[in-house]
Each structure stands twice: as C-alpha cells, then as structure tokens.
Amino acid sequence: MVFNLGYYYNISKLLIEISNLSACFDPSLRGHNLRVALISLAIANKLSFSREFLLNILIASLFHDIGILFFKEKEQVALLKEENFNSRAIHLHAEIGFNLLNRYPFFKEAAKIIRDHHRSYSEFIGSPQKFSFPAQILFLADRVDVWINNRLLKGYSLLDAISSLKGKLEEGRGFLFSPKLLDILFNFYYEKEAFWFNLYTEEEYVRETVVDWLDRLDFAMSIGELLRTVNLFGFIIDFKSPFTATHSSGVSQTATHLASYFHFSQEELRKMKIAGFLHDIGKIFIPNEILEKPAQLTEEEFFIMKSHVYHTYRILSRFIKNEDVVEWASYHHERLNGKGYPFKLKANKIPLGSRIMAVADMFTALTEERPYKKSISSSEAVRMMIQLSEEGELDTQVVSVLRNNLKAIDRSRQISQRLAAELYGELKEVVSSFESSCKN
Ligand SMILES: [Fe+2]
Ligand SMILES: [Fe+2]
Ligand SMILES: [Fe+2]
User: Ligand 1: distance of its center to the CA of 322 in Å?
Assistant: First the structure.
C-alpha cells in the first residue's frame, strides 16, 4: 500500500527537513545539500530520464553529508568545505552515511552513491565495478557548490565565483572529474545565467524547487517504508550524543506499548510510533555542550534546552498535517498542572497521546545514564513518577498503567533500545576502524 501523501505526511518535506540537519553544526553548510541536489539532477537529466536513476541521485545528494552528525570535531566538518579534496580523511563522512543508509532497502542505492561521492574519476576508471558512477555526478556537483559558496561567503560576487570555477574544474579533467560530466556542465549550463540564479537565491526557493522535483519523480513510500524511514531519522537524532543514542527508540516503544492498553487503533498506534521516534527532533538545534553538560544547567542554558520541544513542533508541523502526531510528539514536556514547557498548556489542552508520551519520555530518560545523572531502575523510576502524578505533573492513569504492566513494558523497551545500541556500536566501529586505517 502506498501511503496517501496528501493526507497525513508530506514525505518530500520530511525528507528535506531531515537531510537539512547536516547543516546544523555549521551554518555555512545551509542549503548546500539542496543546491547539490539541483546541480546533480541537472547533469543526471542529460544522461538518463530513468525515474529510479534520478530519484536515487536526488536522495543521495540530499543526504550526502549526513555522516557529519557523527563528528565531534569542527576540523572534520571543515574538511567538507575544503577545496583541496584529495585528503583521505574526507571519506569518513561518506562511509558513515553509507553504513547508516545502506541498512534500509529504500535507501540502498543512494547509500552506494554517498559512499563513493569523494572518489576521483581515476579511481572510478581504475575499478568501475567497485565504485558507483552516479557518485561521480554527486562529486562534481558537490565541488561546484563548495567552490561557489566559499567564494560568496568570502564576499566575492556570484559572477567572480562562476568565472573562476571553470579553470578549477578543468584542472581536474580526466583525473578528478569525468570529462563527459564536465562537458555536460559546460555545454548546457555554465553559460546559462538562469542556471546559477536558480541556485544562489533564497533557500526557501531552492527548497521548493527540490520539492517540485520530488513530486515530478512521483516520490512515494509504502507505510512500512515510512515507518522504517522515521525510525532511521530517530537514530539520526539520537546519535548526536552517545548519551541519547537509544533514547527515541525507547520512548517510541514505551509510548506505543502504553497506548495499546488504552485501546488505540492500529492507525493510532502507528502514529504514536512515529511521534515517539521524532519527539526530540528539535534537539538537533541544541549544542552538545548543553545536552551533555555534566552539571546543572544555568537558567540561560535551560532556556535554550527548552526550545528543543518548540523546534520539534515547528519542524513536525511543516510536514505532518495530522495534529495528533505533532501534539503527541511536541507536548512531552508539558505538565498537567501547567508547569511544563514550552507552551505552558494546562490539563484540558493536553491530549491523552501527549500524556502517554510524557510518561514514556520520563520513564525512558530516568532509566538511562546521562553525564549529569546515573540511571535508576525501572521500579525506582515508577516510584518517582507516582509521586509526580500525585503532585499533578503526570497523568495518574497513565502512570498506573505503567506500574501495572511494568515488566512487559520494560522488556519491550529494553529490546528496542538494544537494537538501537547495536547499530550505534557498529557505526562507532566504522569511525574507529577508519581512523586507525588513516593513521597507518
Ligand atoms: Fe558536500
Ligand atoms: Fe524532550
Ligand atoms: Fe525525550
């Protein structure tokens, strides 16, 4: 069954929102993935009209830098913007991106393109069976945008940036870049002013052009793919910090399990699963220094921390038309006595789904370790939460359902968190084996 896109979720926008997260560490990367997508598509379109081919290139372009969400050091992020692109270290973000996306059948082809998007043309020609050709398109598009954007940021005009581009690319002809792809760029686009004006304009406009492309290519997902994709996005959010690496998986499972005792329909349970995976998506905007601070937050820091739920609301409202999912996800820090945040809602405005999410979030967080606190056992957590429900913070009924079914709920939470932990461990392994191979 293909999901009815117009109904609940605008998958195109979802995809774009998540792929934009790669810019959250470095504002100068904003819009980079969108522009790269448009440049790649323009070139690819001269090679083939195959929907599959174009769609995979588009998805790969959007997500090509997603691996940087794993980077701690700013230097590694800076590498992506460097114009000298022969460094081996640059392959790390491509490897991470590949390892993350390759697990999902829907993203498999895009994953291969991402893996090879810093391979030079000579490497590709040396073993064309080993490396993906569409990756050559992405490589060229990426370098075009890095070159131009860097110049614009340095205060050069767009005309200056374009004029110097040609010579730079020609230096790499046949060695770094495929001659055929360079010819396409130069013969069809380079002289056409509108091509550049379309790219280096307001981000909103570029974003809309990408959405148009997705629509034109009939981008759609089955409901199963949608769930798996949202699950993947939950991982991308959680992996920002090792302390929250399995959090959204635990919350999603706990909330869905709790909701099943309240006779939620299959459809509602699915919505709960999605809301759980995405409830902390706004944390992407919170600096790790605050997320991982090993002491109490200052008033200022806590104020910033509170904005994560506001960002969740804002991001989700952009692509989910269904109020339930948005509210269940975004109200998880609201409290029945009105003392929560950030909307200061009172009980009559907090739906059952959000109350369930609040309980699932707190339960999961209490049983996890953080730099500022130790984990506590699930029964201790429930004891604390009963206290809080008596104080008017949490829903008494939801907490008592948790208490009465603690064993079953806790077991399913642990299983789903174990799966997330395994994936996180595997990706960490990719990083460390890559780093040691760079040293040798
Ligand atoms: Fe890039
Ligand atoms: Fe939260
Ligand atoms: Fe949370």
Answer: 33
